[in-house]
Write a structure and sequence with these properties.
Helix content is 19%, strand content 41%. By secondary structure, the protein is an alpha+beta fold. The chain folds into 2 domains: 1-52; 59-173, Immunoglobulin-like (Sandwich). The strands form 2 sheets. The protein has a 5-stranded antiparallel sheet with strand order 1-8-7-4-5, with no helix packed on it. The protein has a 3-stranded antiparallel sheet with strand order 2-3-6, with no helix packed on it. It is elongated.
Protein backbone atom coordinates (compact mmCIF):
# COMPACT_ATOMS: atom_id res chain seq x y z
CA UNK A 1 0.00 0.00 0.00
CA UNK A 2 1.33 3.31 -0.95
CA UNK A 3 1.47 6.29 1.31
CA UNK A 4 -1.08 8.14 -0.77
CA UNK A 5 -3.64 5.31 -0.36
CA UNK A 6 -3.84 5.72 3.47
CA UNK A 7 -6.74 8.01 4.37
CA UNK A 8 -5.82 11.02 6.48
CA UNK A 9 -8.77 10.53 8.83
CA UNK A 10 -7.75 7.04 9.88
CA UNK A 11 -10.40 5.27 7.84
CA UNK A 12 -13.40 6.97 9.37
CA UNK A 13 -16.14 8.48 7.34
CA UNK A 14 -15.89 12.16 6.72
CA UNK A 15 -17.81 14.17 9.40
CA UNK A 16 -18.00 11.43 12.10
CA UNK A 17 -16.30 13.64 14.72
CA UNK A 18 -18.43 16.58 13.71
CA UNK A 19 -21.63 14.56 14.22
CA UNK A 20 -20.59 13.50 17.73
CA UNK A 21 -19.79 17.09 18.70
CA UNK A 22 -23.09 18.29 17.28
CA UNK A 23 -24.99 15.61 19.17
CA UNK A 24 -23.26 16.53 22.45
CA UNK A 25 -24.03 20.21 21.89
CA UNK A 26 -27.67 19.43 21.08
CA UNK A 27 -28.07 17.28 24.22
CA UNK A 28 -26.50 20.05 26.31
CA UNK A 29 -28.87 22.67 24.89
CA UNK A 30 -31.94 20.45 25.27
CA UNK A 31 -31.14 19.57 28.90
CA UNK A 32 -30.56 23.16 29.94
CA UNK A 33 -33.41 24.36 27.73
CA UNK A 34 -35.90 22.17 29.61
CA UNK A 35 -34.46 23.28 32.95
CA UNK A 36 -34.81 26.95 31.99
CA UNK A 37 -38.36 26.31 30.74
CA UNK A 38 -39.32 24.72 34.09
CA UNK A 39 -37.85 27.67 36.02
CA UNK A 40 -39.72 30.18 33.82
CA UNK A 41 -42.97 28.24 34.28
CA UNK A 42 -42.50 28.29 38.07
CA UNK A 43 -41.83 32.06 38.06
CA UNK A 44 -44.88 32.57 35.84
CA UNK A 45 -47.08 30.56 38.22
CA UNK A 46 -45.83 32.52 41.24
CA UNK A 47 -46.51 35.81 39.47
CA UNK A 48 -49.96 34.65 38.34
CA UNK A 49 -51.02 33.74 41.87
CA UNK A 50 -49.73 37.04 43.29
CA UNK A 51 -46.78 35.71 45.27
CA UNK A 52 -44.36 37.86 43.26
CA UNK A 53 -46.61 40.92 43.13
CA UNK A 54 -44.46 44.08 43.38
CA UNK A 55 -46.98 45.65 45.75
CA UNK A 56 -46.02 43.01 48.34
CA UNK A 57 -42.48 44.35 48.44
CA UNK A 58 -43.07 48.11 48.24
CA UNK A 59 -42.76 49.69 51.70
CA UNK A 60 -45.30 52.04 53.26
CA UNK A 61 -44.22 55.65 52.93
CA UNK A 62 -45.33 59.14 53.77
CA UNK A 63 -43.31 62.13 52.61
CA UNK A 64 -44.28 65.80 52.50
CA UNK A 65 -41.59 68.32 51.61
CA UNK A 66 -40.87 70.67 54.53
CA UNK A 67 -42.92 68.60 56.97
CA UNK A 68 -42.13 65.41 58.79
CA UNK A 69 -44.72 62.72 58.34
CA UNK A 70 -44.16 61.04 61.70
CA UNK A 71 -46.75 58.36 60.98
CA UNK A 72 -49.91 57.58 59.09
CA UNK A 73 -52.77 55.14 59.44
CA UNK A 74 -55.03 53.60 56.80
CA UNK A 75 -58.41 52.24 57.90
CA UNK A 76 -60.45 50.16 55.45
CA UNK A 77 -64.08 50.92 54.72
CA UNK A 78 -66.45 52.91 52.55
CA UNK A 79 -65.60 55.58 53.32
CA UNK A 80 -62.16 54.66 54.54
CA UNK A 81 -60.07 56.87 56.78
CA UNK A 82 -56.53 58.13 56.27
CA UNK A 83 -54.89 59.70 59.33
CA UNK A 84 -51.70 61.75 58.87
CA UNK A 85 -49.39 62.91 61.67
CA UNK A 86 -47.43 65.87 60.27
CA UNK A 87 -44.86 68.07 62.04
CA UNK A 88 -43.81 71.55 60.90
CA UNK A 89 -40.10 71.38 60.02
CA UNK A 90 -39.95 74.54 57.92
CA UNK A 91 -37.72 76.43 60.33
CA UNK A 92 -40.37 79.12 60.87
CA UNK A 93 -43.92 79.31 62.23
CA UNK A 94 -46.77 78.79 59.76
CA UNK A 95 -50.32 80.14 59.62
CA UNK A 96 -53.40 79.39 57.50
CA UNK A 97 -52.39 75.75 57.12
CA UNK A 98 -54.68 73.69 54.88
CA UNK A 99 -54.01 70.01 54.23
CA UNK A 100 -55.77 68.06 51.49
CA UNK A 101 -55.49 64.49 50.23
CA UNK A 102 -56.34 62.98 46.85
CA UNK A 103 -56.37 59.26 46.08
CA UNK A 104 -54.68 57.60 43.09
CA UNK A 105 -57.72 58.42 40.92
CA UNK A 106 -57.55 62.13 41.78
CA UNK A 107 -60.63 62.04 44.04
CA UNK A 108 -60.59 64.37 47.05
CA UNK A 109 -60.55 62.41 50.32
CA UNK A 110 -62.79 64.70 52.34
CA UNK A 111 -66.29 64.33 53.66
CA UNK A 112 -68.92 66.04 51.49
CA UNK A 113 -68.97 69.79 52.10
CA UNK A 114 -65.97 69.59 54.43
CA UNK A 115 -63.12 72.04 53.84
CA UNK A 116 -60.62 69.27 54.50
CA UNK A 117 -58.25 69.91 57.39
CA UNK A 118 -57.53 73.52 58.31
CA UNK A 119 -55.61 74.81 61.30
CA UNK A 120 -54.66 78.29 62.45
CA UNK A 121 -50.91 78.35 63.12
CA UNK A 122 -48.00 76.10 64.03
CA UNK A 123 -44.57 76.88 65.34
CA UNK A 124 -41.51 75.11 64.00
CA UNK A 125 -41.35 71.57 65.41
CA UNK A 126 -45.01 71.55 66.44
CA UNK A 127 -47.28 68.72 65.32
CA UNK A 128 -50.15 69.69 63.04
CA UNK A 129 -53.59 68.37 63.91
CA UNK A 130 -53.42 69.00 67.67
CA UNK A 131 -51.69 65.68 68.38
CA UNK A 132 -54.50 63.56 66.93
CA UNK A 133 -53.38 64.00 63.33
CA UNK A 134 -55.40 64.93 60.28
CA UNK A 135 -58.22 62.54 59.48
CA UNK A 136 -59.49 62.28 55.93
CA UNK A 137 -62.64 60.34 55.14
CA UNK A 138 -64.06 59.73 51.71
CA UNK A 139 -61.43 57.49 50.15
CA UNK A 140 -62.47 53.95 49.36
CA UNK A 141 -59.88 51.84 51.15
CA UNK A 142 -60.10 48.11 50.51
CA UNK A 143 -58.45 45.77 53.00
CA UNK A 144 -55.40 44.06 51.49
CA UNK A 145 -55.09 46.57 48.63
CA UNK A 146 -52.50 49.33 48.27
CA UNK A 147 -53.50 52.95 48.74
CA UNK A 148 -51.61 55.71 46.99
CA UNK A 149 -52.43 59.35 47.57
CA UNK A 150 -51.11 62.86 47.10
CA UNK A 151 -50.95 65.25 50.06
CA UNK A 152 -51.09 69.00 49.40
CA UNK A 153 -50.22 71.43 52.19
CA UNK A 154 -50.90 75.14 51.72
CA UNK A 155 -49.48 77.45 54.38
CA UNK A 156 -48.32 80.99 55.02
CA UNK A 157 -44.91 81.87 56.43
CA UNK A 158 -45.81 83.73 59.64
CA UNK A 159 -42.59 85.78 59.48
CA UNK A 160 -43.00 87.07 55.91
CA UNK A 161 -46.70 86.61 55.11
CA UNK A 162 -45.88 84.75 51.87
CA UNK A 163 -48.13 81.78 50.97
CA UNK A 164 -46.66 78.48 49.80
CA UNK A 165 -47.89 75.11 48.61
CA UNK A 166 -46.00 71.85 48.98
CA UNK A 167 -46.96 68.31 48.01
CA UNK A 168 -46.08 64.83 49.13
CA UNK A 169 -47.02 61.19 48.77
CA UNK A 170 -48.71 58.63 50.98
CA UNK A 171 -48.74 54.97 50.04
CA UNK A 172 -49.23 51.76 51.92
CA UNK A 173 -51.12 48.51 52.19
CA UNK A 174 -54.52 48.81 53.83
CA UNK A 175 -54.73 46.36 56.77
Amino acid sequence: MKKQDIPLNGGRERGDCMNKKAQAAMEFLMTYGWAILVVLAAIGALAYFGVLSPSNFVPNKCTVQGFTCADFELTAGTPGTVTLYLTNNMGFPTTNVTVSLKDQNGNECCAAGDACATDASFNNGEQLGAGSGYQFTGCDLVSGQRFQGTVTVTYTNANTGVSHTTTGDVSGRVP
